[in-house]
Backbone:
């Protein structure tokens, strides 16, 4: 069991068969030491992938993505959910629908920060249906860059996200793969 899985068992709350609350160390209050260790783990796994940028989606992906980018020695680019109100000719946008939250948003990237020379690691906190990751891939491709892989903190393996991304040929590297959730029960896929 890795450190993230141990922490999920200690401080995570299985709210239902679908939702794992990790507000006390990832989504609301953030544990910097854990984020640093996660960054180390991702940087170690992806060190030979030729990554030039880490790309994440605001807001909960930012902390672990920053730590990973720092350890890989590359910039972090944050995809925004609110388009900039300042007129900008370089904006790339794609609509993402969240099944968990039941909303849609325009994922936005300034094409100045990801270009055809980039090989990108997409990193996010949760993988559920894969909609956010798929939107991020669309934007990276619109910017004519390539996707190296998808890095995830917590994958809900009983949802179709990983399958959808693997089908498109993308590697998904998740630190915690949750196979079962129910009130008071959290079970991981053991690897
Ligand atoms: P998908 O991208 O894989 O399809 O997932 P989905 O749209 O269903 O998830 C949308 C939002 O819900 C994401 O946050 C994601 O992190 C969060 N989420 C999904 N499942 C869980 C869960 O079991 N527990 C928690 N705590 N969050 C979950 P977001 O809208 O991007 O918000 P944030 O990054 O600002 O926190």
Residues:
């Amino acid at each position: 069991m890795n450190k993230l899985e141990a922490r999920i068992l200690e401080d995570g709350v299985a709210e239902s068969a679908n939702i794992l609350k990790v507000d006390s160390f990832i989504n609301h209050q953030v544990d910097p030491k854990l984020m640093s260790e996660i960054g180390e783990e991702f940087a170690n796994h992806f060190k030979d992938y030729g990554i030039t940028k880490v790309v994440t989606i605001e807001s909960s992906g930012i902390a672990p993505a920053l730590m990973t980018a720092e350890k890989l020695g590359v910039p972090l680019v944050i995809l925004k959910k609110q388009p900039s109100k300042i007129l900008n000719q370089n904006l790339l946008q794609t609509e993402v629908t969240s099944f968990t939250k039941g909303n849609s948003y325009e994922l936005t990237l300034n094409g100045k920060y990801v270009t055809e020379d980039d090989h990108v690691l997409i990193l996010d906190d949760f993988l559920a249906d894969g909609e956010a990751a798929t939107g991020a891939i669309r934007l990276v491709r619109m910017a004519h860059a390539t996707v190296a892989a998808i890095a995830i903190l917590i994958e809900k393996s009983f949802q179709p996200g990983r399958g959808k991304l693997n089908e498109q040929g993308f590697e998904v590297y998740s630190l915690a793969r949750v196979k079962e959730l129910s009130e008071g029960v959290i079970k991981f896929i053991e690897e």
Q: What stands out?
A: Strands lie at 13-14, 20-21, 53-57, 76-79, 91-98, 103-110, 119-127, 146-156, 172-182, 185-188. Residues 40-176 form a domain with the Rossmann fold fold (CATH 3.40.50.2020). The chain is about 30% helix and 35% strand.
